[in-house]
Design brief:
single chain, lipopolysaccharide transport protein A fold, 1 helix, 54% strand
């Protein structure tokens, strides 16, 4: 288990939960067609979706974008393509989450990010990147988890594992199995051998 690999609030689940609420309130959906097959056809599609939510009391901005949003009435499922979430807040690390696909189920109790999922947290020179192919978010429990291979990169350290559970409340990451840590040592700026004094022959007085 790795503790405090991501110091400070990650705010991943908060971003998605607030985003979902904002989308429900801010978007005026087009009127549903009467002649569609509710089991197989979407009732609306939105392209080039983008939005900003501002929390003035915390000077926080939550940015969201997606190339395509498709909603299916059966199960009240929403699918997003090329999604990107960004949190901007003074004195807080910048947090960005991106994925090729996102899926919101009925009631938004579960959110699934799929393919090329990246979580990037950075502040000044401190940068942490998490990459996986699947991430299951449970907003009510503040949990993000996956059973897929995951790679974490921080400074000169790379951690590979299979399975991960991230608890936003405790700010801990639990790597499940096959954990492998690699530390890439930085090359020395100077060659020690170059600092050695050259060998000289002793001077003997002539007879």
């Amino acid at each position: 288990m790795i503790h405090r690999l991501l110091p400070g609030p990650i705010a991943l689940l908060t971003i998605l939960a607030l985003l979902t609420l904002w989308l429900d309130q801010a978007i005026q959906y087009p009127r549903s067609r009467e002649d569609y097959d509710s089991n197989h056809q979407p009732d609306y599609i939105i392209e080039n979706l983008a939005g900003v939510q501002v929390a003035y009391d915390k000077a926080r901005q939550l940015l969201f974008s997606a190339d395509v949003m498709t909603h299916y009435p059966a199960g009240d499922m929403s699918y997003y393509e090329q999604v990107d979430f960004t949190r901007l807040q003074p004195d807080k690390p910048l947090v960005r989450i991106s994925a090729d696909y996102a899926e919101f189920d009925d009631g938004k109790d579960n959110i699934y990010l799929k393919e090329n999922v990246f979580i990037i947290r950075e502040k000044e020179l401190d940068r942490v990147t998490i990459r996986t192919e699947f991430l299951h978010l449970i907003p009510d429990a503040d949990i993000a988890k996956t059973d897929q291979p995951v790679t974490l990169v921080k400074m000169d350290m790379t951690v590979n594992a299979v399975g991960m559970e991230l608890n936003d409340r405790t700010e801990k990451i639990d790597l499940k199995s096959r954990v492998k840590v690699q530390v890439n040592k930085r090359q020395q700026s100077t060659d020690r051998s170059s600092n050695k004094k050259p060998l000289t022959q002793p001077n003997h007085p002539k007879k």
